[in-house]
């Protein structure tokens, strides 16, 4: 079975062909400015792929709140023209084959459960730490969307009276706070810069790094004791930081000591997949939708 896998993003569309349990023929193109242009380019992608191998269907990762029942993408994203119309039906007609679409964070979570850091597990949280905090809730091996399609929107969680998980638990906002305190333009300071400054003993950077780790650990603790997953997977840009897990475990140990009733530490690990995560997860979502539910690799 071969599938065309697409990862639609605000700046680019990544694509590849899934065959023999791997992604090949990968590439990308700039995200078109209109839906009409996008359909032309997507149809051409499929045509070119089929010149090499017959395709069974198309598996898509997309931004936005994907409503599987209604066949539309709700919410909003950096690609406004993909929302609030029967996109499933239009793409099925365009491609003349079965189509699946799932939210990009949910696809990344599915990839980790299928073949990644949570392979063989059924109940997992995938936490994406980027400019904000999002992710996916995987229950019994499937995405749990929630009544309002807000499953995995962990960043909305309040960690203080006025600050959300996204406000306090990301390296991006850590850099913004540091820049503000140092009276320098926000775009001149990255999260990596702040980590480097802290290692050199900068007092403001040290405070902001501690704030970041503390609240990221607190959010993870809250998620563990709310959902009680088998494992929590960390993704996003900060997942490339080699000492992230030891630093989080250090803060989690402090929290566990403070909350006497808490009896175990959350099991957290870094994601396995980086650039291909959404493509792989889109394929798994397709398999769940159109094929006999595949067994997770053990």
TrEMBL record:
Native source organism of the sequence: Heyndrickxia camelliae
Similarity annotation: Belongs to the ROK (NagC/XylR) family.
Taxonomic placement: Bacteria, Bacillati, Bacillota, Bacilli, Bacillales
Name by which UniProt lists this protein: ROK family protein
Pfam families listed in its UniProt record: ROK
SUPFAM superfamilies: Actin-like ATPase domain
Regions crossing the membrane: none
